[in-house]
Design goal:
By secondary structure, the protein is mainly alpha-helical. The chain has ten helices and six strands.
C-alpha cells in the first residue's frame, strides 16, 4: 500500500506526482481515452443522448460537447463566458457546453472528438493531467446513469487522482477533510482522517471531483 506523508499520496517513499509519468505517456493516454469514449457512444439512441448524467442538469449530449471543448477553448472564450456568468465558473462551463451541444449534433461532436483526440492543446490554466482527469470522469458521468460500463485501467487513474487531490481548483481537500481514501483495486491511499473510504480507484476519482459514491 502506498504510504502517505502530509496527506500526499506516496509510492516507494516518494510523493506521487507528474515526475513519475512523462508528458508523452500522459498525452497518449488522453488520446486513447477520448477514442474509447467515442467508441462507447457510437450507436447511442436519441433517448440516450437526452439522458441525464452525473453532471447535474447536463444530458449525455451536453457532457460530450463539454469534453470536445477541452482542446478548443480559448482565453477569450473563457473570459467572456465568465463575465456573462457574472463570475460563476460552473455556470460559464455549463453555458459553454450547452451552447456547443445546440450548435452540433451528437454525430458531429463524435467526429470532433475523434479528429481532435491527439490534439494536446489545453484549456487556459489547465495542467497536463487535467484533460486525462476530465475525460475519465466525464466518461463515467455518462456511462453510469445509462447503466452501462466504461472500463478504465486502474493504473491509468492514479496520476489524475493524485493531481485532483493536490489541486485547489477541484476543492477535493476541503470536500474530503477527515477522510482517508483507500483504493481496493490498486495500491493507492491518501489522507489520514478517521473516516476510511474504500472503493475502486476510479470511484475515488469521482468522489474527489464532487460525485456521490454509490455502491455498485
Amino acid at each position: 500500500m502506498n504510504r502517505v506523508r502530509d496527506g500526499r499520496p506516496m509510492i516507494s517513499g516518494r510523493p506521487f506526482g507528474l515526475h513519475i509519468m512523462d508528458r508523452a505517456r500522459i498525452q497518449q493516454q488522453i488520446h486513447e481515452e477520448r477514442l474509447a469514449l467515442a467508441e462507447f457512444l457510437d450507436g447511442s439512441t436519441e433517448a440516450e443522448w437526452a439522458h441525464p448524467t452525473l453532471c447535474d442538469g447536463w444530458t449525455v449530449h451536453e457532457v460530450l460537447a463539454h469534453v470536445t471543448l477541452s482542446n478548443q477553448d480559448t482565453l477569450w472564450a473563457l473570459v467572456t463566458g465568465i463575465v456573462r456568468a457574472r463570475g460563476n465558473w460552473d455556470r460559464a462551463n455549463a453555458d459553454a457546453a450547452i451552447t456547443h451541444a445546440r450548435r452540433f449534433t451528437p454525430a458531429e461532436l463524435l467526429t470532433q472528438l475523434r479528429d481532435r483526440a491527439g490534439d494536446h492543446r489545453r484549456s487556459p490554466g489547465a495542467g497536463v493531467l487535467d484533460p486525462l482527469a476530465d475525460v475519465i470522469v466525464h466518461g463515467q458521468d455518462i456511462a453510469r446513469p445509462l447503466g452501462r460500463s466504461l472500463p478504465i485501467a486502474p493504473e491509468r487513474v492514479v496520476a489524475p487522482l493524485a493531481h485532483v487531490l493536490g489541486s485547489r481548483f477541484y476543492g477535493a481537500q476541503r470536500r474530503l477533510r477527515g477522510k482517508r481514501l483507500v483504493a481496493t483495486d490498486i495500491a493507492f491511499s491518501h489522507g489520514a482522517g478517521p473516516e476510511e473510504v474504500c472503493a475502486p480507484v476510479v470511484d475515488l476519482l469521482l468522489l474527489a471531483t464532487g460525485r456521490e459514491l454509490v455502491a455498485r
